[in-house]
């Protein structure tokens, strides 16, 4: 709706970056767009529930209810009717404070026959709602960080939603962009309706010449992925990826001769899927039996413009496949998204450490399996009728087990993470000492000097 009447303004080589700040009745939505003529590409989004006009009204309501309690020693909060009347009045006060420095109220028989009158200055209203105003700026900052864009690269800041008429909201937003002039060309109450009408016209093909070439490229609000055997999220489609889009990855088995594998689809930003939301899943069967890690299971995510996700899993060897369609029903609400994004950012360092720990364990297990396979193959092949000497076997040991058995980390490098299993080999000094002692004792008894090998299991 903003770009349509300004086509010539957006006829530049790389388009123009437009940040839309939508502060409505109950939500704050920030969208960063790149507009090139009639192509509108969404770069990133950030949304917050319970942040808008209703939240401002609630602050005024509590302020006046407290003032009524101080003046008359009665709590009007026990009366739903009194609260409803006062809430309606607070809505008018909020609107009036956008154009005047002070507003007054006068209500007859508000509670138990008591008349109530009071006044409030704009500065007091701003003080009551300062944390909410700052919350809106936090969403602007997050939107820019997700897009990896400096605020100086934003060409236009467009205000949408009735609550953007509040002077403090405008001044804070202007200060955030280093004094940049805000774009007030659109009616904040009509902008969303105009945009919805344009998009409807595009989708139905009934908009005429003015909108027939308009293209909106939306993004998915949350990362989508599958669960691996350790419960870790394997992301296929990251957050803020332009849709429609398609992505794929390869999974494998974690047990020998495994013929089925569960495919669980999650959305969220955490490394551990227990903190993400399960959207659905299925089990792929018919996998050809093979040693663990050998089968290749191709998983494909295909999401369309209506946010409908099609999931396909196929075993490359046997050709067995299964698919599932996941619609938006049951997906995360705005409240869920905001809560989970904040928690994911808070736990980011912990999630990264967990991913690294699991990656090391998987690498060690893979090397152990490869080492065992190499030994078996060499024993079968031999060397000119002579069996090849087996390589030094590797053992997976925790630090406590290694100390107890006097094992050494392979290569002499210990694990950096406490508690992680490490590649270990027997201590050669201890083995040599044991063999020498055995030979000495045997010679003293007139025997061959050989001893039984150490039991390392």
Task: Describe the fold and architecture.
The chain is of the alpha+beta class and 457 residues long. It has three domains: 1-217, Actin, Chain A, domain 4; 230-346, Substrate Binding Domain Of DNAk, Chain A, domain 1; 351-426, no CATH class. It is built from ten helices and 18 strands. It has helices at 53-72, 80-96, 122-128, 130-147, 167-176, 191-204, 334-346, 348-381, 399-405, 428-444; strands spanning 16-23, 27-36, 39-49, 102-111, 114-121, 156-160, 215-217, 224-227, 233-237, 245-251, 261-267, 277-284, 297-303, 309-315, 321-326, 395-397, 407-409, 422-426. The strands form five sheets. A five-stranded mixed β-sheet has the order 6-1-2-3-7. A four-stranded antiparallel β-sheet has the order 9-8-11-12, with no helix packed on it. Helix 1 crosses helix 2. The longest helix is centred in the C-terminal third of the chain and has 34 residues, at 348-381. The radius of gyration is 33 Å and the shape is elongated. 27% of the residues are buried.
């Amino acid at each position: 709706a903003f770009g349509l009447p300004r086509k010539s303004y957006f006829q530049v080589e790389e388009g123009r970056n437009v940040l839309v700040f939508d502060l409505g009745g109950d939500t704050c939505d920030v969208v960063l767009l790149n507009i090139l003529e009639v192509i509108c590409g969404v770069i990133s989004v950030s949304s917050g529930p319970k942040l808008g006009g209703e939240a401002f009204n609630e602050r005024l309501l509590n302020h006046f209810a407290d003032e009524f309690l101080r003046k008359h020693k009665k709590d009007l909060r026990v009366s739903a009717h009194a609260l409803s009347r006062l809430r309606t009045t607070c809505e008018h006060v909020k609107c009036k404070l956008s154009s005047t420095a002070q507003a007054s109220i006068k209500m007859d028989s508000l509670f138990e026959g008591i008349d109530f009158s009071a006044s409030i200055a704009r500065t007091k209203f701003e003080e009551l709602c300062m944390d909410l105003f700052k919350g809106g700026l936090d969403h602007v900052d997050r939107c820019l960080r997700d897009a990896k864009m400096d605020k100086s690269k934003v060409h236009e800041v467009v205000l949408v939603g009735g609550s953007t008429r509040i002077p403090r909201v405008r001044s804070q937003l202007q200060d955030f962009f280093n004094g940049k002039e805000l774009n007030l060309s659109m009616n904040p109450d009509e902008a969303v309706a105009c945009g919805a009408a344009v998009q409807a016209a595009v989708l139905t093909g009934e908009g005429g010449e003015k909108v027939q070439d308009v293209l909106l490229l939306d993004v998915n609000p949350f990362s989508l992925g599958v669960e691996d055997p350790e419960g870790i999220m394997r992301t296929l489609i990251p957050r803020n990826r332009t849709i429609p889009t398609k992505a794929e990855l390869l999974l494998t088995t974690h047990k020998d001769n495994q013929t089925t594998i569960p495919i669980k689809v999650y959305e969220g930003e955490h490394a551990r899927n227990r903190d993400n939301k399960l959207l659905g899943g299925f089990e792929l069967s018919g996998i050809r039996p093979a040693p663990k890690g050998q089968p290749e299971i191709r998983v494909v995510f295909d999401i369309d413009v209506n946010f409908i996700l099609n999931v396909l899993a196929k075993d490359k060897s046997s050709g067995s496949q299964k698919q599932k369609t996941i619609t938006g029903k049951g997906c995360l609400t705005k409240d869920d998204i905001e809560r989970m994004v904040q928690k994911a950012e808070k736990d980011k360092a912990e999630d990264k450490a967990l991913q690294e720990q699991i990656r090391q364990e998987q690498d060690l297990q893979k090397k152990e399996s490869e080492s065992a396979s190499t030994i078996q193959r060499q024993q079968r092949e031999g060397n000119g009728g002579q069996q090849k000497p087996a390589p030094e076997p590797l053992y997976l040991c925790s630090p406590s087990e290694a100390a107890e058995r006097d094992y050494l980390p392979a290569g002499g490098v210990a694990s950096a993470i406490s508690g992680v299993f490490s590649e270990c080999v027997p201590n050669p000094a201890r083995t040599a000492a044991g063999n020498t002692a055995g030979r000495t004792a045997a010679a003293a008894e007139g025997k061959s000097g050989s001893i039984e090998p150490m039991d390392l299991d």
